[in-house]
Amino acid sequence: MRATTSEHSMDQQPYVSTNPAAQPVRRIIPIASSSGPVTTAAGGACGTRKPGLPDSLWERVKDHPCYSADAHHYFARMHVAVAPACNIQCNYCNRKYDCSNESRPGVVSEKLTPEFAAKKVLAVAAKIPQLSVVGIAGPGDALANAERTFRTLELVRAQAPDMKLCLSTNGLALVEHVRRIKELNVDHVTVTINMIDPEIGARIYRWIFFEHKRWSGREAARILSERQLAGLEALVSAGVLVKVNSVMIPGVNDEHLIEVNAAVKQRGAFLHNIMPLISDPAHGTHFGLTGQREPTPQELKRLQDRCEGDIQIMRHCRQCRADAVGMLGEDRGAEFTSDKIKTTVEAMVEMAEPIYNMNARRAYRTWVERERADEQAARERARIAANAAAETHLLAVATKGGGRINQHFGQANEFEIYEVSPLGVKLVGQRRFRHYCQGGYEDKETIPAILSALEGCTAVLVAKIGHCPREDLQRAGIEAVQDYAYEYIEASALAWYQRRLERMHKQQACAAA
Ligand code: CLF
Ligand code: SF4
Questions:
Q1: Which of 83-92, 269-278, 349-358 comes out lowest in average pLDDT?
Q2: Digit-coded pLDDT (tens) for 450-476
Q3: Other residues' Cβ atoms within 10 Å of the Cβ of residue 382
Q4: Is 104 in the pocket of ligand 1 (CB under 6 A)?
């Protein structure tokens, strides 16, 4: 067993950060067998992704650190805190609480105007080329502050055209804003749905404010749930990718989240993120003050496992702050306070530096694609080598010598037999027979003897083969291969071996999808 790294050195990486924690990590992929014969594997530019995810969806999520677990290794997000108000009160939230060591939703240090938020995006992008997503996630509800939210998104869209736009909402005011969301090309929306049963909802929400009136209890939860599900359906119909967040509250909605999962799955949600309740009494939330316990990591995992199925379950959420900046799990907000942003932007203008440096951003993405391809290839090699442990095949080769596959099937009167396995490829014998073409004509009577000579072989590698003998071989379960005509025998045997395993794994992946 040995480890391997990518071929690209860190020197080639275009990104230079002052924060070592933000450096994309060069991951080491274990190779199951160092002596494995499998040479290159098709990494492709698509990078790693969940099997069965169509290309069109992969293109939409591959740079979004929350929607793709793979992307969170490479890309960063930032939240701009332009939405202070909220139209509901959840029992796990206290938006008045503000602490710079805090790391949970609904807590924020500096509230921004849309104009300043757009400036902040430019300043952050200048320092963090991994930044791919700008999200609005509070400190209140993005759509309870619709004008500020949409103005911010418009400004960001105009100044940073390649940035993904994202927002998160409790869903109460969602239906009426779907058209605007679509117009602004906001491709990712999160709706927090903790229940579909108003009895349970009444234990999670203290009140909602709807149609100029405050509602509470079961009725509040019913209105909220109906509007959340209608909003989810409307977004999905509009082609927006929807993630549903659910807070797991032991004894309140934990079992019920199975039903929530089924309901959002049925309505076309792309991703379900089940997060643990945070109920530290020091935060002053209703749940915190009344002793509602948090789930254990084991309980959370068990629930996530039960919900995993047709819908992807997000397992890398970091429960970000409403002003989080950086890769998931790190918070570089302190580097981008208002004063520092002003200084950065002014300095760049003075030095005539491009504030939004498209070239640096493109260079970073190119590096990521290479890195993903390398990783994919390494992973593929490891997978093939690991899965191939039990696979040993005999190959018959039609050759006139020179180490090449250079004889027609009909002209051969012997095959060299090679054994190909995870340990390599080796010549294990010859088998003789009377050749198939006699005096320029096919001799069908030779076929039984040839099939007998090929017994135990999975395939025969030839320079050329006719239609009839190919069919005879096929009926006997032997693959006739002329794709490697005039190529070196051993390299061809390995290439055939790898292709066969890839085909097999694809079939397994399709069957599992
Ligand atoms: Fe922000 Fe949310 Fe967009 Fe991501 S966060 S608005 S989808 S860009 Fe991500 Fe943070 Fe978890 Fe949210 S890790 S809390 S899921
Ligand atoms: Fe807090 Fe968000 Fe709930 Fe509003 S919707 S009360 S901001 S957690």
A1: 349-358
A2: 888 888 899 999 999 998 889 999 999
A3: 21
A4: no
How far, in Å, from the CA of 380 to the mean position of ligand 1? 30
- The total of other beta-carbon atoms located within 10 Å of residue 313's CB is 16
The secondary structure of 345-392, three-state, reads: HHHHHHCCCCCCCHHHHHHHHHHHHHHHHHHHHHHHHHHHHHHHHHCC
Residues contacting 509, CB < 8 A, separation 6+: 51, 52
Q: What's CA 373's distance to the chain center, in Å?
A: 14
Atom of ligand 1 nearest to the CA of 133: 8
- Cβ of 135 closer than 6 Å to ligand 1, yes or no, is yes
Comparing 62-66, 76-80, 147-151, 399-403, the range with the smallest average pLDDT is 399-403
pLDDT at 387: 61
Please report the atom of ligand 1 found closest to the CA of residue 328.
13
Ligand 2 atom with the shortest distance to the CA of 94: 1
110, 142 in Cβ contact below 8 A? Answer: no
Q: State yes or no: cis peptide before 139, omega within 30 of 0.
A: yes
Q: Which ligand is nearest to the CA of 169?
A: 2
Q: Is the CB of 221 under 6 A from ligand 1?
A: no
**CA–centroid distance, residue 141 to ligand 2 (Å):** 6
Provide the pLDDT for residue 57: 92
CA of 168, nearest ligand number: 1
Task: Report which protein residue has its CA nearest ligand 1's atom 11.
Answer: 317
Give me the residue label for tokens 């209105």: 223
Rounded-to-integer distance, Cα 446 and Cα 432, Å: 12
pLDDT digits (tens, 9 = 90+) for 17-70: 333 333 343 333 222 233 332 222 222 333 346 667 888 999 999 999 999 988
Portion of the chain with pLDDT greater than 70, in percent: 82
247 within 8 A of 275, measured Cβ to Cβ:
yes
What is the number of the ligand closest to the CA of 187?
Answer: 1
pLDDT in tens, 346-375: 777 777 666 788 888 999 999 999 988 887
Sign of the Cα pseudo-torsion (173, 176, 178, 181, in order)? negative
User: Is 485's pLDDT higher than 90?
Assistant: yes
Q: Is the CB of 73 under 6 A from ligand 1?
A: no
